[in-house]
Specification:
alpha/beta, 12-stranded parallel beta sheet, 12-stranded mixed beta sheet, 8 helices, about 15% helix, about 30% strand
Length: about 725
């Protein structure tokens, strides 16, 4: 009888744990009442008593086990409920916002704050006296590009210096240097400070808003002039190769205005220009750039800039000039009206109502000297996606930020940096070059990798990417870095420099917490003496809901000369070797497979097959600048490669301000069309054009075999346009 009762007790207790109702006892006659069955009492012998005692001990043991299991199960259920109802707190426990094992988190050591800064990061403070102003100008001049004076240059010739030549010129001697620098300015007013911003140098204000660091009572402040004025189209020089430099998070009120005669990978962002902004110098050519999240009190003058993107800029006195294409996204104030351009004037593409903006993370310094990492949140509302935006960022202490310092050992770089990422920390990479033995893997939501002073990650030798962002990891920020190809000693199915997501994992991303790529600059060749550097594609995006903000993906058209080596095309440039067929190989700049990917400011140049392949649906691109490779032969055209390819299954795609250029230096190449896309009403493209830059061959049409093209040498440098992808109104034919 007792054994039967124990059996029923087991059933009822297990039913409470499982949530199921216990079945009735077989002899139960009342559905709502448990029946105890009585049996005749038997005479107890010693043996039967022993048996009964043994049964009692067994029952007590069984009950103990059952109670223990029940208690453990109940605790698990309670813990699970707490875990489910507190997801936000769980994420906020980790500095980077990701999820990680709590026992592991408890063992993570804080990073020092203030951080220990390497020599590649210099901090300056406001000067108070004239001697301090002179001393600071002298110190900053050490970080500018080398100069050649007029007397030094013409001393080497028998000709007298022409009177219209400037007294000196900055040079491109540091074009492929390994030196990297970040110049940090503590909050305050900097009077009388003028300095040129050199190659691979970032000028960074450490305040919470641009006006916290103000350059005033100066002639130029931080600036960039045209370079090589005695050797390139003298006396004007050039801005075409003035790459890899930046200014962020400052205000400037220079008497001559702020001059920034630079090209790709040289952004201005989070700046308040309290005078005119001059994006050119004289008749020096320049090939485009990006101004983002800024206020310009004066006028923006593009001069002869071929193309330019302004994103979220407050234009108080408008913008003038420019050559081929100007794109305005989310701008306010005196924004120009949209137009399709002409043979001699730029097209103007305007997006007054972008659906999304994400600003680049940045660093600040408190009065105590402690550093902070500020991470702007994604903005979606109409009031938040327009104009400049300074404030409202998530603030993270540097105790949760690993400051990377480069080593020449790829294994050291990988192990140190990956350990910090695995601990859930953010990474801020100090200036320098970081060879990698393996990919840096980002596994936690909302983590940040931010480079300072053009920190450069060099790809692992087996072809794996410099950075791999795992699928289904939203809100990651990758910003301010260069990614450089290596000479591969091994192969993987598809080598790249950056990969986001996995080809075999369906990841639409998080529309409320998109990922960010901001100021990411890839290059295959250039700085390496070995011209066998390669990768198959520079960036592959398998995940969706990623926002791209100023990307330059460059297969080098010119590379560093060996000591004693002479230039192979000295009439083009005596300073570099021009890349020829078989060198610096890369097939594609970018492949987009993810859904709802946005690119605002995308430059891709010289890859040996399609420059851009966009397979994901619902994509958006504003401002695309592309040069086809210089060194290919007619087989490139015979294989129908293009500058911008939208995949055959894409139904919805929007693009504006798309320019694709040809300069077939070595062979007469005739490409059928610049842009290829499937015929679909959901594919809407505006202000599309081609330009015949120089040399041989041409692009025969703009999009899908439609649109005008150059016909003779006299068409060099002229845009040939379609106002939309129907090409119903050819411009330039």
């Amino acid at each position: 009888m007792d054994d039967d009762l124990d059996s029923t007790d087991d059933i009822q207790l297990s039913s409470l744990i499982s949530g199921k109702r216990a079945p009735r006892h077989p002899d139960d006659e009342d559905a709502n009442r448990r029946i105890t069955i009585h049996r005749p009492l038997e005479l107890e012998t010693s043996s039967s008593l022993d048996i009964k005692l043994e049964k009692g001990r067994r029952r007590r043991f069984n009950r103990f086990v059952i109670l223990f299991v029940a208690l453990a199960a109940a605790l698990l259920i309670i813990a699970s409920l707490i875990w489910r109802v507190l997801p936000v707190n769980r994420e906020q426990d980790n500095t980077a916002g990701g999820t990680m094992d709590s026992s592991k988190k408890d063992t993570v050591e804080d990073e020092p704050n203030p951080p220990i800064l390497p020599d590649s990061i210099q901090i300056f403070y406001p000067p108070k006296t004239e001697p301090e102003i002179e001393a600071l100008n002298a110190e900053l001049s050490k970080f500018s590009d080398p100069i050649v004076t007029k007397e030094e240059f013409f001393r080497k010739t028998t000709l007298p210096p022409p009177p219209n030549y400037p007294d000196f010129t900055y040079t491109s001697d540091l074009h492929f240097t390994s030196k990297r620098t970040a110049l940090l300015f503590a909050p305050g007013v900097y009077e009388g400070i003028d300095f040129e911003v050199a190659y691979y140098t970032s000028v960074l204000g450490l305040g919470g808003k641009p006006t916290d660091v103000t350059f005033t009572n100066c002639d130029k402040g931080p600036h960039v002039d045209a370079i090589n004025k005695f050797t390139t189209r003298p006396p004007w020089g050039s801005g075409l190769d003035t790459f890899w430099r930046s200014v962020e998070n400052i205000a400037t009120n220079a008497r001559e205005g702020m001059r920034w005669a630079a090209s790709q990978a040289a952004p201005l962002r989070r700046v308040h220009v309290q005078s005119d902004l001059l994006l050119f110098e004289g008749d020096a050519w320049a090939s485009g750039g990006v101004l983002a999240n800024a206020i310009v009190d004066g006028q923006v003058n593009f001069g002869g800039q071929q193309q330019y993107l302004l994103r979220n800029v407050e234009l108080k006195q408008g913008a003038v000039n420019g050559a081929w294409s100007l794109v305005f996204v989310g701008c306010t104030g005196e924004t120009p009206s949209e137009n399709s351009g002409s043979k001699s004037g730029p097209s103007i593409s305007v997006d007054n109502f972008p659906k999304l903006r994400i600003e680049k993370p940045f660093i600040t310094m408190k009065e105590s000297g402690e550093f902070e990492l500020r991470v702007p949140l994604a903005a979606f509302s109409q009031s938040d996606v327009l104009g400049s935006q300074f404030g409202g960022e998530e603030v993270r202490s540097f105790t949760g930020v690993k400051l990377g310092v480069p080593s020449t050992d790829g294994a050291d770089n990988y192990l140190i940096l990956q350990k910090a990422l695995d601990e859930g920390k953010d990474l801020v990479l100090s200036p320098g070059e970081y060879p990698l033995a393996a990919s840096l893997e980002v596994k936690y939501p909302n983590q940040v990798i931010l480079g300072l002073g053009y920190a450069t990650l060099k790809a692992p030798l087996n072809g794996s990417p410099c950075i791999l962002v795992h699928p289904k990891v939203p809100g990651v920020r990758i910003a301010g870095i260069m990614l450089e190809a290596s000479v591969l000693t091994g192969t993987i199915p598809s080598s790249s420099l950056l990969q986001w997501g996995m080809p075999d994992v369906d990841d639409v991303g998080d529309s409320k917490n998109p990922g960010l790529l901001s100021d990411v600059f890839c290059r295959v060749g250039g700085a390496s003496y070995d011209r066998h550097v390669s990768t198959e594609v520079m960036i592959q995006l398998y995940s969706g809901n990623i926002y791209g903000d100023n990307l330059w993906l460059w297969r080098a058209d010119h590379v560093k000369l060996h000591p004693g080596e002479e230039a192979n095309f000295p009439h083009i440039s005596p300073y570099y070797r021009q890349t020829v067929m078989g060198e610096c190989q890369v097939r594609n700049g970018m492949k987009v497979y993810g859904q709802a990917v946005t690119m605002v400011g995308l430059f891709i140049e010289h890859t040996t097959e399609d420059q851009l392949i966009w397979e994901g649906d619902n994509g958006y691109a504003a401002f695309y600048q592309c040069e086809l490779p210089y060194d290919v032969d007619q087989s490139y055209a015979d294989k129908s490669f293009v500058g911008y390819r939208i995949g055959p299954d894409v139904k919805i795609h929007t693009a504006r301000g798309i320019g694709i250029y040809s300069n077939f230096r070595d062979f007469d190449v005739n490409v059928a069309t610049a842009i290829s896309h499937p015929e679909s009403d959901g594919i809407v493209m505006s202000n599309l054009f081609t330009v015949y830059l120089d040399n041989q061959g041409k692009i025969n049409s703009v999009v899908n075999g439609k649109g005008p093209s150059a016909v003779s040498e006299s068409d060099r440098g002229r845009p040939f346009r379609c106002s939309d992808n129907t090409c119903s109104d050819d411009i330039g034919s």
